[in-house]
Every structure is written in structure tokens, then in C-alpha cells.
Design a protein that fits this description.
The structure is a single chain. About 65% of the residues lie in helices and about 0% in strands. It has about 110 residues and is mainly alpha-helical. The protein is elongated, with a radius of gyration of 19 Å. The chain starts with a helix and ends in a 7-residue tail after the last helix.
Length: about 110
């Protein structure tokens, strides 16, 4: 009988590990992943390139929600249209937090945690 209870332990450990992994992902990242038919937000969190993609996605979503254009963001933030487009396309420089903070303020979303 003791052997029967222990027979499922590896399976239970796998489930617990998966639950721990899922709970470590920010809820908003998971919601964004689900909107794009991804079954996990992990690809959005694994590398600098993935973070750039996640930031670009968040900017595009916020712009769509607010009906904002690149030029509108340029006027509100003082950032160049080229820099904003680079951020939207996932090729922007994330090492400088100032543009991210300006975009966050203009769009009313958090980007620095992505």
C-alpha cells in the first residue's frame, strides 16, 4: 500500500514544479500571451530579445486601446518617431529607462517590468 501512494510522487512533483513555474510569471504577461494564442508567457521573459518583443507588443496594445499614433506619442513624450517605432518593432534599446518611462506615462501602462 505504501508503494501505491509513492508511485504517483514523480507525477505530483512534475505538477508542483509546473505550478511553481506558472506562478512565477507575472499575470499581465500571461494574459498578453493568451491574447496572442501562446500557451505560456515564458517566451516573453527568457531573453533580452524576448523582452524587447514583449515591450513592443505592450506598446502596440496600449496604442490601439487609446487610439494613439506614433506621432501622437512623439508629441506627448518628445521621443523621436523612429525611436518609438523601434520600440514598437522590438528592436529598441531597453538599457535606457528614460524612453520607457516616458512611454509608460503617455500610454498609462507599465513597461519596465517586461
Amino acid at each position: 500500500m505504501l508503494e501505491d501512494r509513492n508511485a504517483h510522487l514523480p507525477e505530483q512533483r512534475d505538477v508542483l514544479e509546473e505550478l511553481n513555474r506558472l506562478t512565477a510569471i507575472p499575470v499581465d504577461a500571461m494574459q498578453r500571451a493568451l491574447r496572442y494564442n501562446l500557451d505560456s508567457a515564458e517566451p516573453l521573459l527568457l531573453s533580452l530579445d524576448d523582452s524587447k518583443i514583449a515591450v513592443g507588443q505592450a506598446i502596440r496594445e496600449a496604442m490601439h486601446h487609446k487610439g494613439a499614433t506614433v506621432y501622437h506619442l512623439h508629441e506627448k513624450t518628445g521621443l523621436s518617431c523612429e525611436l518609438i517605432e523601434d520600440m514598437m518593432n522590438g528592436s529598441g534599446d531597453l538599457s535606457d529607462s528614460e524612453p520607457l518611462q516616458k512611454l509608460e506615462a503617455a500610454l498609462g501602462v507599465r513597461l519596465t517590468h517586461l
